[in-house]
């Protein structure tokens, strides 16, 4: 009987030891998973909402310890873009693209960085390495911009149309498309696109300003019916005034400058200076 008890105790101790070892291993695996998740979350935060310069330092340090990780390389490249360091970002994206784990989207992002650093021919060459079956919003947006730079208007319109259809937030692309129409003198077409952009995002001031320029180019010197606060109204009147003056409608321009000065909730130095220069002349 005593031997039986000893054997049972020995077995219990052995099971306890095995359970302890298994438990330690499970804890270690769990901790590794947690560290991996936390690291991934931190990477995402740094890429999107962290201070760009701090993000660059973070990813540079992380890459010093693990230089082959494509997610860290990608994080550095995106952080450089967020920090308006486009030339450095080009080199960073080239490193990403050279990584065997890179994707076609990484090539698109390289082209984006090249455009931001005014390397238009390189950007076009990069996009040409991407198969036509890779149909994404960012890809077609960049294709449209490159077509614009070459004044290939038919291609530009086609690419913009495709890009708009591939996103649920097309306001900025509609604004870019409208500006393309504006630069080529299609003022009614530009006006329609700026209005479409504001239907999608009524807060987009750039589209409001561009809309006023498109209307002014057609000698429509009344503000469009769009949402605007008092400061925006004053700034749009100022843009309208400059457009009128540029077209030698000086009297109309003076009146619009006075309206802008009266409308602005604070002192509107730019408008006041322009009005003084006209009156002195």
TrEMBL record:
Gene3D superfamilies: Tetratricopeptide repeat domain (1.25.40.10)
PROSITE patterns listed in its UniProt record: PROKAR_LIPOPROTEIN
Family annotation (SUPFAM superfamilies): TPR-like
Organism classification: Bacteria, Pseudomonadati, Pseudomonadota, Alphaproteobacteria, Rhodobacterales
Descriptive protein name: Flp pilus assembly protein TadD, contains TPR repeats
UniProt xrefs under InterPro entries: TPR-like_helical_dom_sf (IPR011990)
